[in-house]
């Protein structure tokens, strides 16, 4: 299986990145292929509710880097949404991506795929409720199967590497892949 990790953190080698690496590393041990996309490397414009994605070929018509991301999402069997918690939700870049998943509501090309969440938060798992519920609802709308989460306590860049129990949470995430 191919797993695509969409990283919504602006920090490379930060907590989100390290946790995703742990999950993908364990998946690789079981023969699965993994790829990471750093959303901050892509131009993602905000959805303008033009609704062009609901007609014709059912694709987004905005001119940015999303066609590259859509191709990778289409080719994946499972997705990891990796985002630190910002104000009890995803980062702005991740929110832009989520909004731009709208064509999949009409074209159903990702229906049935598994989706996982990795979310470090300074306040820990108890602060992740709003994000989890929002994503569960969004995934259901898209036809994705919410398959698990690693909600981790971490804030300072890379501190999760010194927390073996938190790293293990991420490693175990894809066990039912």
What descriptive keywords fit this protein?
single chain; 177 residues; alpha/beta; Rossmann fold; 5-stranded parallel β-sheet; globular
Q: What would your notes on this structure say?
A:
The protein is α/β, with parallel strands linked by helices. The chain has one domain (2-176): Rossmann fold (3-Layer(aba) Sandwich). It has 6 helices and 5 strands, in the order βαβαβααβαβα. The protein has helices at 15-29, 66-75, 92-99, 103-107, 129-142, 164-172; strands at 2-7, 33-38, 78-82, 114-121, 145-153. The protein has a 5-stranded parallel beta sheet with strand order 2-1-3-4-5, with helices on both faces. Helix 1 (15-29) links the parallel strand 1 and strand 2 (33-38). The mean pLDDT is 96.
Topology at a glance:
Layout: E1 2-7, H1 15-29, E2 33-38, H2 66-75, E3 78-82, H3 92-99, H4 103-107, E4 114-121, H5 129-142, E5 145-153, H6 164-172
- Mean of residue pLDDT? 96
Largest sheet: 5 strands, parallel
Envelope shape: globular
**Unreliable spans:** none
């Amino acid at each position: 299986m191919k797993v695509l990790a969409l990283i919504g953190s602006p920090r490379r080698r930060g907590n989100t990145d390290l946790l995703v690496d742990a999950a993908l590393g364990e998946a690789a041990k079981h023969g699965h292929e993994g790829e990471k996309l750093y959303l901050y490397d892509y131009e993602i414009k905000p959805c303008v509710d033009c609704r062009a994605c609901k007609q014709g070929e059912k694709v987004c018509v905005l001119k940015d880097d999303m066609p590259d991301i859509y191709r990778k999402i289409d080719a994946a069997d499972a997705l990891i949404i990796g985002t630190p918690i910002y104000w009890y939700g995803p980062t702005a870049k991740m929110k832009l991506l989520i909004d731009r998943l709208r064509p999949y509501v009409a074209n159903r090309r990702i229906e049935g795929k598994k989706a996982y969440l990795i979310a470090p938060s300074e306040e820990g798992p108890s602060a992740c409720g709003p994000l989890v519920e929002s994503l569960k609802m969004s995934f259901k709308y898209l036809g994705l199967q919410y398959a698990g989460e690693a909600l981790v306590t971490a804030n300072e860049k890379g501190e999760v590497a010194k927390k073996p129990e938190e790293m293990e949470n991420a490693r175990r995430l894809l066990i039912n892949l």
